[in-house]
Every structure is written in structure tokens, then in C-alpha cells.
Amino acid sequence: MRKRILDLKQISDAALKADSPPPEKPAEGAGQKAEDEQRLQIISFFLDGEEYAFEVADAVEVLRPRQMTEVPRTPEFIKGILCVRGEMVPVMDLKKRLGIGAADCKRLCRILITSIEDLKAGFLVDRLSGVKDVPVSSIGPALEGERAFKFLKGLIATKEKPIKLLNAAKLIDLTH
């Protein structure tokens, strides 16, 4: 009896497969452009109402603000250091680093940890926007008069305002 139930189940499944139409294949060339286009994942955030971003490859994690240990005789944009998973990580006030004011850490403020080669640093940001997938073709050069020009990799064109793509390596390098 049990074998007969299994046989009926198999017959029923086969009949359903035969009745359903085959999956549609996209027309040749349709959607191919979108698939061929190179894309870049970014993690975007806001500073003073303007949207900025790092490449996801540079981002390690996001933390809620917490008590930092101040370090004497450091540049004023360095807020202090945090112990993150056993590593000491310097935390920078990104607004001060870019020359656009000072961090006003509120409820949505976050610390974005980046890693370039073997160097890690945290950046205080007003709030996160999220991870976005953008076409590489939408990234243009930064304009020379742009705020924080020396730290920009480029500008990402969007329907609204452009997103400023930051160079994490230059931000971490204290000689810039």
C-alpha cells in the first residue's frame, strides 16, 4: 500500500511538471547590457545632510558609539581609541577630518570601521544609509572645488544628489 502511495505521488508530480510551461528565456540581447556592466558595492552614510560612501571592500563593521580612550598629542580629529575584538582601533571624527565641522553624536550616529591593508580605523558618521550596488559608469571624477576634494575618489551620479565616494586609504594616512 505504501509503495502505491509513493507511485501516485511521483505520477502526480510528473503530471504537474508536464502541465507547467517551460521557464521563459530572455530575448537575446535583452538585459545583457545590465549583466555586462561592472558594478561596485558601496556603504553610504550621511554627514551634515550630504551623502558619502566607502567601497564595501574597505568596510569591516559598524558599531554603536561607545566610550573611547582619549590619546594625548594626537590630531584633533582623532576622538580616541577603541578595543575592537582585541585590536586597538583609532576613531576619527570624519566631519573634522574632512573640514566640515564636528561630530554631534546623536541616537543614529555610528562608528564605521574600515580596513586598508593592515591598517584599521573607525569613522564617526551621523547615520548610515546602507549598502548600495552602483554601476561603475555612474562614478565620475571629483570636482576640484568640491569640499574634501583631496579625500574623494569620485562622485557617484544618482537621481537625487551625487554621493561622494571617499578614499579610505587617504583618510587613514595622517600625512594628508
Structural class: alpha+beta
List the domain count as a whole number. 1
- How much strand content do the residues show? 35-45%
Number of strands: 11
What Rg, in angstroms, do the CA atoms define?
A: 24 Å
What is the highest CATH level, the class? Mainly Beta
Q: How many strands, which pairing sense, and closed or not: the largest β-sheet?
A: 6 strands, mixed
List keywords for this structure.
alpha+beta, 19% helix, six-stranded mixed β-sheet, 176 residues, OB fold (Dihydrolipoamide Acetyltransferase, E2P), 39% strand
What are the SSEs and their pairings?
Elements: H1 2-19, H2 32-36, E1 39-47, E2 50-55, E3 59-63, E4 78-84, E5 87-93, H3 94-98, E6 110-116, E7 119-125, E8 127-135, E9 139-140, E10 152-156, E11 163-166, H4 168-172
Parallel strand pairs: 2-11, 5-7
Antiparallel strand pairs: 1-2, 1-8, 3-6, 4-5, 6-7, 9-10, 10-11
Describe this structure in words.
By secondary structure, this protein is an alpha+beta fold. It has one domain (38-172): OB fold (Dihydrolipoamide Acetyltransferase, E2P) (Beta Barrel). The protein contains four helices and eleven strands; from the N terminus they run ααβββββαββββββα. The chain has helices at residues 2-19, 32-36, 94-98, 168-172; strands at 39-47, 50-55, 59-63, 78-84, 87-93, 110-116, 119-125, 127-135, 139-140, 152-156, 163-166. The strands form two sheets. Strands 8-1-2-11-10-9 form a six-stranded mixed β-sheet, with no helix packed on it. It has a five-stranded mixed β-sheet with strand order 3-6-7-5-4. The protein is globular, with a radius of gyration of 24 Å. Mean pLDDT is 82; it is low at 1-32.
